[in-house]
Amino acid sequence: MRKKILLLCMVSILLFGASTIFATFSLSLSPSARAKADRVYIDISSLECGKYVYEPFNRENAWNEKVLIIKQQDCTLSVFLIPTRENKFIMPERFWGNIGSLCKNFSPSVNQENRLIENGFITCHDSELEAEYIRNLKWTYSGVSKANFVVQDLYVPKIEIQGNQVIINK
After folding, report:
1. Quick one: which of 15, 73, 142, 157 has the fewest CB in 10 Å?
2. Domain boundaries 37-169, corresponding CATH code
3. Average pLDDT in the 29-38 region?
């Protein structure tokens, strides 16, 4: 009888300890209050389907990034962080701007009504860059590169959508 009571006590203590460790670990996985306060909130209530918008990425530790938000024709959202330098976009190629690949006008392809072209691309529309170089700078609206191995996919940050706000968790 004593062995059963001792065994029951040991199992109870072991289960209590394991559940305490598990609860502590799982609570530490959620973002801290400071991390939640540092998130970037962007209002997209005025963004129509088939349109896009650039917003500043207002964080103290961010280095001149802009947020590209694309709301496709079917109203699905794509969000990208695009680095900038000298008010120009740094192209996400292999060397990330180290070979002089700065673009003044980096945006999705649009028609005359300024709406996204269905199955179009995000590309550089800068006439100052070489046409052959620009030809390799194409990404789908989901950020996947359509070029050779030198060009990388666009950076997709972790986001949450709450109502009409996109919350960027970088």
Report:
1. 15
2. 2.102.10.10
3. 73
Q: Are 69 and 47 in contact (CB under 8 A)?
A: yes
Number of neighbouring beta carbons within 10 Å of residue 168: 21
Radius of gyration, alpha carbons of the chain: 24
Dist CA 144 CA 78 (whole Å)? 11
Of 117, 111, 115, 147, the residue nearest 132 (C-alpha):
147
Element (H, E) at 166: strand 165-169
Half-sphere exposure of 28 (CA within 13 A, CB side): 6
Q: What is the pLDDT of residues 79-124, one digit of tens each?
A: 998 888 888 888 777 666 565 578 888 999 999 998 999 889 998 8
The one-letter code for the residue type at 87 is N
**Per-domain boundaries in the chain:** 2-30, 37-169
